[in-house]
Predict the structure.
Amino acid sequence: MFLSVLSLNSGKKIIFWTKIAVFALLLVYIGYVLRQQPFDWTVLRKQLRTVEHPEWWAIGLCTLTPVNWGLEALKWWILLQRVEKTSFGAAYSGVLAGVSLGFALPAQLGDTAGRVLSLRDGKRGSAIGASLVSGGMQFYVALVMGTIAWAYHIRLVPDRNSTAGWWLLVLLGTLSVGGVVFGLIRTRLLTWLSGRAGLKRFATYWNVAGLYSDREIALALLVATLRYGVFAIQFYLALRVVGIVMEPNVAASGIGLVFLVKTVTPAFNLLSDLGVREAAALWVFAPFGLSVPVMITATLLLWFANILLPVLVGLYWVWKLKLTAE
C-alpha cells in the first residue's frame, strides 16, 4: 500500500493524505468529546435498578436508529432525483458521510458536504440546493411540532404562561404559517430572486427548489414528519431506559420543545449539537421535578444511539468520498 501511494501523482497524493487527515481528525475529535462528557455510572446503576428490563428499552432505542437515518436518506433520495438519478443505498451512504462530517463542522456544512461529495455526476451546485431543501423541510416539521408543543407547555407550566411566552407562541405560529406561504409562492419567489443582479450567481443553489412538484414536496414532508415521530419515540425510549415515566402528553410536548431547540441551535453552534439537547431537556423538564443526572443520562443515551453510532459507521463512507469533481 505504501508503494502504491508513492506511485500516485501529486494531485492524487494530496487527495489521499487529505482523506487520512479528515479520518484521523474525526477520530481524535470523537475521543475528545467523549472525554469532555463525565458519565456518572453510579447514578445510572442506581436508577437502572428501579427499571424492569431496561435492556429492552435500550434495544428498541438502538433498533430505531437505522430507521431514523433511513427515513432521512429516503427524504434525500426523493429530492435528489431532480439532480441525479441514484439508488437509495447511495443516498443512505451519502447521508451517513454527512453525519460524520457534520459532527465536527459548524451548521449544515458537514452534512451538505458529505452528501454532495458522494455524488458521481458532478451536479454539485444543484445538489447543495437539494440538501438545503431537505434540511429546511426537517426544520419546518420541527418548527410546527415545536409550536404545538409550546402552546401545550405553557398550559402545563403556569410560570411560563407569561406575556413573553405568548409572544414566543405568536412568533412560532407566524413562522409556521410563513412556511406554508413560501411553499405556495416558491416558484415565483425564486424566479424573482434569480433576476436580481447581486443574487444571480447563487441561482444554481436554489433554483432546484422550484423544480419540485407539489407531490414531491408533500411526499418529502411526509417522510420528514415520520422521521420526527421516530425521533420522538426514541427519546421516550431513552427516558424509559433510565426509569423516567411521564404522562404521554407531558412527554410529547417536552420532546417537541427539545427537538425544536436542538434543530434551531446548531446553526449557531461551532461543533456538534452535544450539550444543546441536554441543556434544553433540563430547562424543559425542570418544572416536573426530574433528577438532573438521570435526565442528562437519558439525553446522552439518545446522543450515543442517534449521533455517535451513525458517525462511526459514516467514517467508512467519509473515506470513500470523491474529493474532486472529474
Remarks:
- Confidence is low (pLDDT under 50) at residues 1-8, 267-271.
